[in-house]
Specification:
It is a single chain. The chain has 539 residues and is of the alpha/beta class. 28% of the residues lie in helices and 22% in strands. Strands 20-21-19-18-13-14-15-22 form an eight-stranded mixed beta sheet, sandwiched between helices. Strands 5, 6, 10 and 11 form a four-stranded mixed beta sheet that branches. A three-stranded antiparallel beta sheet has the order 7-8-9. Helix 7 runs antiparallel to helix 8 and helix 14 packs across helix 15. The C terminus is likely disordered.
Length: 539
């Protein structure tokens, strides 16, 4: 495709090239799809996944395109860039190697690593107002939110904004300038973004529109950063510093559930010699509080272990409003060891327990799906009121947890003035120790390449123990199952009244009646007698 759509038209429309490369229709012209002969040389094209093509002949001039999309290995013979570069060694210092690419992921980007080893040239243009030479940075493109047509560039020297119609003259007066001193003086590198594009190709207004359209989506932001700015994408799954979480711990009565929490859920992580349970309280906007932490010693094969977990389910916690609260739902992992013990416990406990299975997926539309029955008769029929398993997309919930942990907190002065915490704020009590804080951020989201060389995102532990993070994810899944993400205002008000929470001053009065609340997911449905059975009763 590259040969037919780019190389052949280039030759056909360039008289100087057309004189040197014979038409493909001519006999023995040397003009094929993958090879174009001309007096003094030959152009050979090959794929980066072909080891044979990369080592087939010496090459004085080597052009490697879109190197960030190359696989890790060509036919299991090694890095394709290194294989290609070896073809130029025959010509020594007379060889010239040129690489070009849209950069992709930081840390995996070949082109970024190559550019960092060069003199890092940027295209400097003069400010049309003061004449200061500068290279264009996206952060200096300013516009009114929701009005991309107001996009203007602000000079870094005079701080005055100018419109895009100056771009033509700016580009004509621009020049490439090195911004670094490389170890190898012959290594030169060039970087340019779409900010320099002619207006007919991509205007500043269009760039502002694309940036606003990408807001809130990591995928769209990555495409914008890679293709518009020509910069690598930094994964957002880097764990926050545990010291910051430890320093932000808060003091409240450990025997009392904070006033903002109106729902208790728990996440249980089954280990070989213990079960760890974290109890979380949930409030409006998914604000959450760590209420309790229970470690049940004993193997999962011991009845005493499961009896102790049953006791946790029946336990009550005192709410700040004066009411007693129980765990509405406990989500327990089934993937660690033999799941039959978890199924047996869930069967005895009933709807209060939700067995869950985590899947490392970023593609699911909902973080929790199901439930699906796991109890069947020998004939393959589903057992009524049998165990039902929920599927949890743990990757997305871990990203959500890290995003909530990074939220900025209001100052003491702002809190005293009545400002609340941002939605999603995670409150950690003073009794949580350093070990627990480290477990909460024990994993990093990294981008790695599979056996075929394709990039994929995966969670990797940076320390052995991560039970706090797992329990948090399961407790969050339990809150999802309890439909807290979809509670209506009427339901929030009703729940707050049940707990003795007074409405805030200035809050609108609650409606006398609201739309009927959806039935809980595990609520038993009314049984309808079948027609044949009803007829028998009438007789």
């Amino acid at each position: 495709r590259n040969s037919r759509t780019r190389i052949d038209p280039l030759i056909e429309e360039s008289p100087a090239l057309r004189e040197r490369v014979l038409p493909a229709r001519a006999r023995d012209s040397g003009n094929t799809i993958l090879s174009k002969e001309f007096p003094g040389g030959v152009l050979v094209m090959t794929g980066a996944n072909s080891a044979v093509g990369l080592r087939s002949m010496p090459a004085r001039y080597l052009f490697l395109d879109e190197v960030d999309s190359y696989q890790d290995s060509a036919d299991d013979e090694g890095d394709p860039v290194s294989l290609a570069e070896a073809r130029a060694q025959t010509f020594g210092h007379r060889a010239k190697i040129y690489m070009a690419s849209t950069p992709l992921i930081r840390g995996l980007s070949r082109i970024e690593a190559e550019y960092e080893a060069t003199d890092r040239r940027r295209f400097f243009v003069p400010c049309p107002l003061c004449g200061h030479m500068q290279w264009l940075r996206f952060e200096r493109l300013r516009w009114e939110k929701g009005r991309p047509e107001t996009a203007r560039y602000r000079c870094e020297a005079c701080e005055e904004a100018f419109a895009e119609h100056h771009k033509t003259a700016m580009l004509a007066a621009g020049e490439w300038r090195a911004t670094a001193t490389p170890r190898d003086p012959s290594a030169v590198g060039f970087h340019i973004s779409a900010l320099y594009s002619p207006v007919g190709w991509q205007s500043w207004r269009r760039i502002a529109e694309r940036r606003e359209a990408a807001e809130g989506s990591d995928r769209l932001l990555q495409v914008f950063r890679n293709t518009v700015l020509g910069e690598t994408w930094v994964e957002s799954g880097e764990a926050p510093e545990w010291q910051r979480i430890y320093e932000r711990r808060e003091r409240w009565d450990p025997a009392v559930v904070p006033a903002g929490a109106v729902l208790l859920t728990a996440g249980a992580d089954v280990q070989k010699d213990r079960i760890e349970v974290d109890v979380w309280g949930w409030g409006r906007g998914l604000e959450s509080w760590l209420v309790d932490r229970v470690v049940i010693e004993g193997g999962y094969g011991s009845d005493a272990t499961w009896d102790a977990l049953s006791e946790v389910l029946s336990r009550t916690w005192l709410h700040a409003g004066g009411a007693a609260m129980q765990i509405a739902r406990l989500a327990i992992d089934t993937g660690g060891f033999d799941p039959t013990f978890v199924y047996g416990f869930a069967r005895r406990a009933g709807p209060q327990v939700a067995p869950v299975k985590g899947v490392p997926s970023f593609e699911r539309a909902a973080p929790v799906t199901g439930p699906t029955s796991v109890d069947y008769t020998r004939g393959g029929r589903r057992i009524r009121r049998g165990v039902r398993l929920w599927t949890v997309a743990v990757s997305g919930l871990k990203l959500e947890t890290y995003r909530f942990l990074r939220l900025e907190r209001p100052t003491d002065e702002a809190l005293a003035a009545g400002e609340g915490f941002p939605a999603g704020t995670i409150h950690v009590p003073e009794w949580a120790d350093a070990e627990w804080c480290q477990q909460l951020v024990a994993e990093d989201l990294v981008t790695e390449r599979d056996r075929r060389g394709f990039a994929k995102r995966a969670w990797h532990k940076r320390r052995e123990r991560n039970e706090a993070l797992d329990c948090r994810v399961y407790a969050r899944a339990a809150a999802w199952i309890e439909q807290i993400d979809r509670w209506s205002e009427h339901r929030w008000r009703r729940r707050e009244r049940e707990l003795g929470i007074r409405p805030e001053a200035g809050a609108p009065p609650a409606a006398a009646e609201d739309a009927a609340e959806p039935a809980p997911v595990d609520a038993p449905r009314p049984r309808r007698p079948r027609a044949g059975r009803l007829g028998s009763m009438l007789r």
